[in-house]
Amino acid sequence: MGAELAIRGQQSGIASLHNFAEVGRVLVDNFDSDQQDITARIIHDANVIIDGINIYADGKTRHCLAVQATLRSNRAETVVLVCSTYKGIAEYGSLIAFKVDDIAEASPVVFP
């Protein structure tokens, strides 16, 4: 399951920097009777993870996963919401990007 949003910035004689805040959510069902991992991630630039969440879901349960991130870019970007589970389904995925004036720097978070 994936939802894509192409983020395009206008380019002039000087490359301008664009800042975006992104919010995503997805509903994931675990159809298996056993526990399993359920994952949602925001990815850009061909598999660079900028946010993600992974939970260990009980059998026969439904979960709403939320992700959020910021992105600073001076070129066109494709941002993707990616979800995974073993025996289940991901539905009602949504990914929204808001253009913002600036992004405050913080310590990076690394996902495996």
Record the SSE blueprint.
Layout: E1 2-7, E2 18-30, E3 36-44, E4 48-57, E5 61-73, E6 77-85, E7 88-100
Antiparallel strand pairs: 1-6, 2-5, 2-7, 3-4, 3-6
Report on the structure:
This protein has strands at 2-7, 18-30, 36-44, 48-57, 61-73, 77-85, 88-100. It has one domain (2-7, 18-96): Immunoglobulin-like. The protein has 112 residues and is mainly β.
Fill in the keyword field for this structure.
3-stranded antiparallel sheet, 65% strand, elongated, mainly beta, single chain, Immunoglobulin-like, 112 residues, disordered N terminus
Judging by the overall fold, what is the CATH architecture?
Answer: Sandwich
Number of helices: 0
The total tally of domains equals: 1
Structural class, by secondary structure, is mainly beta
What kind of assembly state do the chains in view correspond to? Answer: single chain
Q: Mean pLDDT score, rounded?
A: 83
Portion in strands: over 45%
Q: Distance N terminus to C terminus?
A: 20 Å
Strand order of the largest sheet: 1-6-3-4
What's the CATH class, please? Mainly Beta
- The poorly predicted ranges are 1-15
Largest sheet: 4 strands, antiparallel
Number of separate strands: 7
Helix fraction bin:
under 10%
Outline: elongated
CATH topology: Immunoglobulin-like
